[in-house]
Amino acid sequence: MKLNEMLNHKVLANIRVVAGFDGLTRDVSQVGMIDAPDITDFLFDGQLLVTSGYHFQQQPSLLRDLIIGMAKNNASGIAIKKGRYMTTIPANILKLADELNIPILWTPASDFLSLTVKRLTAVILATQNTELKQIISINQQLSDLNAQNITYQHLLDQSAHILDTSLALLNAHFTALYASSEWVAQREFLTHFLRHDSKIDYLNLTTPTRVTFNHRAIDILPIFSALNENKAFAAFVVNEDEPSSFQILKRQQVMNTLGLANSRTDLLNETAFRNRSGFFLNVMQGGLNTEAIDNYLYEAKIDSKQHFRVAIVDFAEKEKIIESHQLDIRQQLTRWFIQEFHWHVLTFSHRQQLVLLMHETIAPQEFLTALRHFLSAQQTLHHPLRIGFSRISESIHNLAELYSQANHALKLTSIQQPIMRFRPKSAEELLHLLPEQESQTFIEQTLGPILSNSELLDTLKTYIFLHQNVTAVAKTLFVHRNTITYRLKRVSDILGVDLEMPDVLLDIRLALMLL
To answer: Where is the PucR C-terminal helix-turn-helix domain (predicted)?
Structure first.
């Protein structure tokens, strides 16, 4: 407890402060009674020393040395029995005590030193007993709140009442998501100040820090999180420069409760991320029909008609596997970067890769270069990273093709070129870069009348890819040569084209490749 709080008790009303008034906020953790010349050797942090002053009446320098020693050991002060051996204290000693903020107290001449120590100790024990009961009560209250799974707003209001101060909950981007009721109106202003004016590197903030906001001191404490990049923060209005040990203990109780609530939120977010990853993997593997995909996207508030490019971020060296926790850190940092700068990018995990769905309005090279520079600057990352991305943007329904392009590009990356865009290696790959609507229009115009006739379509396809060799076509399809001739005649009539014309054959070949 604080020395000034102790001296406010009625049983200590006869004790008078004569110097070191600015040190009355020092914590008192124990009371000692020593009357020896080498008293400096027995000083402890938080100790209030009670003495008769016997050795100081003849040698004031001993009192001077003691006060200096008390300052070095962070002792709380010295109480001298007035009138027993000392009735005055030299002015230079009083001045030194004021400079070092070491309180000097007079205790009543009528009290035995043992009685003074007993009274002081009784006050400390009574206070500690009361505080212990309060801490137990607070712990039970906060545990009950967590068990009830209440809202952050309610939790912060209760915490503010316990601490008798305003507080806010900040996310990993120093945004004040919630605040106790009396501070709700300050959330946006606090967020702007912390993000833009405080100059705090909040991504790497792991220790408590103090800032001044609206002429008030604010303590910011990191809240426990399983992953550093997922951490949150609590911001407290400071009502006293040096909070008491009891206030610190109450604050720690609140921090533990907020940490538990934050861990629960982390778990929900990670579960949602894993579920989303499962959905996208199902889309890639063709395990969902169009209706199922559209229903999921609608529930996730994603426009099914939006187009995305796909990028694959691979954190592992070629043919090497990195430890899973290191992979989690890289993925969390990437997601932190996307959220920090409000990029319109969806993410999901696939094996040791993080797959990014970049909205078509994003300049992919600009975004991916910025991402790579950010990740490369993080000291916790020791593995190189490579990125491949698709050449085109399509709806999520075509995720498999987009992923395939990005994966092909990824295989071409190198130390010199860590970011690669897909480059088609064949005419068929090049054709599939055409917008789907244009491709479908060309197919319909070229082959439309026979698309529903599988027999004629297969015959035409075989004829084209066997270089118009009717005999080879007949052997391949196990039918008579005359049957093939008859079918080709029907195709020619239905499509209204001459199958001997090179430009007609070229259009048909392209249309078949687009199917």
So the answer is: 456-513
Query: How many Cα atoms are found within 13 Å in the side-chain-facing hemisphere of 438?
Result: 6
Instruction: Tokens for 412, please give them.
Output: 């071409």
The domain segmentation of the chain, as residue ranges, is 1-123, 148-263, 287-423, 429-512
- Whole-angstrom distance, CA of residue 509 vs CA of residue 494: 17
Q: Which of 70-74, 189-193, 250-254, 357-361 has the lowest mean pLDDT?
A: 250-254
pTM of the complete model: 0.63
Provide the 3-class DSSP secondary structure of residue 423.
coil
Q: Which CATH number is correct for 1-123, 3.40.1390.20, 3.30.1220.10, 3.40.50.150, 3.90.1150.200?
A: 3.40.1390.20
148-263: CATH architecture:
2-Layer Sandwich (3.30)
Edge-to-edge strands, sheet with 104-107: 16-19, 104-107, 77-81, 47-51, 30-33
Spatial separation of the C-alpha atoms in residues 181 and 25, rounded to whole Å: 30
What confidence tens digit (pLDDT) does each residue in 467-510 have?
A: 888 898 888 888 999 999 999 999 999 999 888 888 888 888 88
